[in-house]
Amino acid sequence: MANEKKRKGDLSQPRNIATLLSVIFPGLGQLYNRRFIKGFVLFIVTISFLITTWNYIDIGIWGLFTLGTIPREHHSIQLLLQGLIALIVLSFAIAIYIFNIKDARNDAKLREDGFKKPSVIRGISSFYDRGFPYFMILPGLIMLVFIVVLPLLFMLALAFTDYNQYNAPPRNLLSWVGFNNFKDLMNVGIWKDTFFSVFTWTIVWTVVATTLQILLGFFLALMVNDKRIKFKRTIRTFLILPWAVPAFVSILIFAALFNPTFGAINRDLLSQFNIMIPWLSDPFWAKVALIMIQTWLGFPFVFALFTGVLQSVPADMYEAADVDGGTRWQKLKHITVPHVLYATAPLLIMQYAGNFNNFNIIYLFNEGNPAVRGQNAGGTDILISWVYKLTFETNNYNMAAAITIIMGLIISIFAFFQFRKTAAFKEEGRY
Q1: E strands within 300-417?
Q2: Which of 23, 199, 268, 310 lies at 20 to 30 Å from 259 by C-alpha?
């Protein structure tokens, strides 16, 4: 028994040695396992990485924590970006380092089990079978990290700094302020009033405008799908026309139509009843106009979507309902609506998420105006248009970043829970 335990202890020696060598320096464990090509590649890659990036990573990490120490000489934004890039590069290096340790240990285990060292041809074949797909997606993954992840990390970092129009590099150095920006949004006078005003209007805008366009699209789809309606193709073509016109063109046209001075709505239509509505100067009427415009712009897509789904509802379901004496309302409630929602719920959720961040219509119609006393946002600004103004007009980058984080959390939480409740999402999870 003692000899058997000793023999087992001896068998465990190679894996421990290979692991230790790979921990000390990448490639040494592979060389110990006589995987010379793999070991030399990892060894050379590690040395090249350390030589070319050591100083960059060292300065980047230092700058990420300090954001500079000498005004005008150190640029906090450049140091912040360099630090984030250094973290990303370091993350890739750590991933390769962990792979190197696991690979050396696995090869040592195979040696202990009596497997022969694979030939070069077999190693290449194994890489092609297992690692080639990862190798092919690696360039896209790296591009995704630097095009998508890096800007997101930069935005997240700015939300915890004091970067604004009065404190901007290189004249001044930035500082980490923790959650102070978020606290200001909730507690400090003008920020608090503006945030809650814009936030509530954003919710109302999202819910009302999106719901109206969905209801209108659904109603029109039901009407056109009715067997008694003739010239269905012609009617569908006309109803989809607003979708064919670029949205920004339609918005600019509506901005002219709603102009209280020379717009056709006031001058040619409402003037016949001695009514003049301040569409652009009164926040309430401007919001009403925006909701009507978005309903007009959004219903064609919903109409086309529902039209296709309604045509896929099995006719025998309606026939069975007729046999059972079902009314039109019962067939709508128990057959049509469930079938439509099952097929379109994820897309309808995205409609809500899209309108929550619908910057184009707010900016092109009236740039979020009119102005509101005691607020640094316009009367029709939603969160995304307010972020735009804070970024490009008043240079309050820290507050804009904080608001963007809040927006992202709201949309993510809403979309997650709604997708989890949809039948289409649950059904897909089974396969």
Answers
A1: none
A2: 199
Read off the pLDDT of residues 263-296 as tens digits, 9 standing for 90 and up: 999 999 998 889 899 999 999 999 999 999 999 9
Which neighbouring-strand residues pair with 167? 164
pLDDT band for position 120 (50/70/90)? low
Own/partner pairs for 163-169, CB < 8 Å, 24+ apart?
Answer: 163/76, 163/77, 163/397, 163/398, 164/395, 164/396, 164/397, 164/398, 164/399, 165/394, 165/395, 165/396, 168/395, 169/68, 169/74, 169/75, 169/76, 169/77, 169/78
Which structure tokens are listed for 82? Answer: 């360099």
Q: Quick one: how many helices (H) and strands (E) in the chain?
A: 21, 0
What pLDDT, on the 0 to 100 scale, is given for residue 306? 92
DSSP 273: G
Domain limits of the chain? Answer: 2-158, 181-428
Determine phi and psi for 161, rounding to 5 degrees: -120, 180
Reading the block at residue 188, the tokens are: 């400090």
Question: 340: Cβ–Cβ under 8 A, 6 or more apart, which residues?
Answer: 218, 306, 309, 310
Handedness of CA 358, 360, 366, 367 (dihedral sign): positive
> Which of 92, 105, 100, 361 has its CA nearest to residue 209?
361
What residues have CB less than 8 Å from 127, skipping those under 6 apart? 135
User: Where does residue 307 rank: exposed (0-12), middle (13-18), buried (19+ CB within 10 A)?
Assistant: buried
DSSP label of 36 = H
User: Fold for domain 181-428?
Assistant: MetI-like fold (1.10.3720)
Indicate yes or no: pTM above 0.85: no
Residue with tokens 């309808």: 348
Query: What was the pLDDT predicted at 3?
Result: 46
